Amino acid sequence: MSQTTPRTTIVSRRASACWSSRYCLLIAAWSIFSLTGCSGIKGLFNFEEQAQVHLPAEQLIMKGMDEFNVGKYYLALDYFNEILDRYPFSPEASLAELKAADANYFMGRYAEALVLYREFEERHPTNEAIPYVMYQKAMCHYQRIDTIDRDISGATDAIQAFRELLRAYPTSPYTEEARARIAAANEFLVNYEFNVVQFFLRTKEYSQAEARLNYILAVYPDSRIAPRAQELLELIQAGKPPAAGFARWFQGLSLPDWMNFLSD
């Protein structure tokens, strides 16, 4: 007579096998911990690195620059801030100030970076890095430029800041790029104005559209959008404003690549 294995025995064996597998995993994990130590576990689970801040100013600036140069800006900022907190009058302090601003900039914290650049400029007005600081102040504004249907203050503030740089240091290493970025930001402002025309056309406020087009041609006669604006203005003045298909008139309205405005 054949015998059958009781159901409870099968369940027991499965449970035992499952426990054995879990036990093996625990043993393996403990072996990794024993072999690699804390640093290995940090790497395994991607724990955040900590700055070694209890060091002299000379070592802090070196470690901060090492982290900064490999893109670890949060870690670099810890070193720079430690210098400013503990060694504010040390020879390393001014560099720590500047690189703290740079670290914030490269982390995309433009408002914070702008404050730090301004403070550096006020404290060290004769420092050889001032042209760079003025350029970075302008770039903090430039990086805030959004789409043409949003706030345009980033463009206007960037243009003003770049012009201040050109007035103060007309032959700095940043002159050519500053001029190109001014031109790109100006084109952005023109595109913003032209995009407003689209709204007036959709709402059939043709007199408002005509006034805005006249403004564009008067203030930005050499802009890249000027020929399109002139053509559209002539249609409105002839009593033939486009009633549909607006998209083709308003394509490509954005912040253009500043490199397209570099001189040969």
From TrEMBL:
<dbReference type="InterPro" id="IPR017689">
    <property type="entry name" value="BamD"/>
</dbReference>
<dbReference type="Pfam" id="PF13525">
    <property type="entry name" value="YfiO"/>
</dbReference>
<feature type="domain" description="Outer membrane lipoprotein BamD-like">
    <location>
        <begin position="56"/>
        <end position="230"/>
    </location>
</feature>
<keyword id="KW-0998">Cell outer membrane</keyword>
<dbReference type="InterPro" id="IPR039565">
    <property type="entry name" value="BamD-like"/>
</dbReference>
<keyword id="KW-0449">Lipoprotein</keyword>
<keyword id="KW-0564">Palmitate</keyword>
<dbReference type="InterPro" id="IPR011990">
    <property type="entry name" value="TPR-like_helical_dom_sf"/>
</dbReference>
<protein>
    <submittedName>
        <fullName>Outer membrane protein assembly factor BamD</fullName>
    </submittedName>
</protein>
<keyword id="KW-0732">Signal</keyword>
<keyword id="KW-0472">Membrane</keyword>
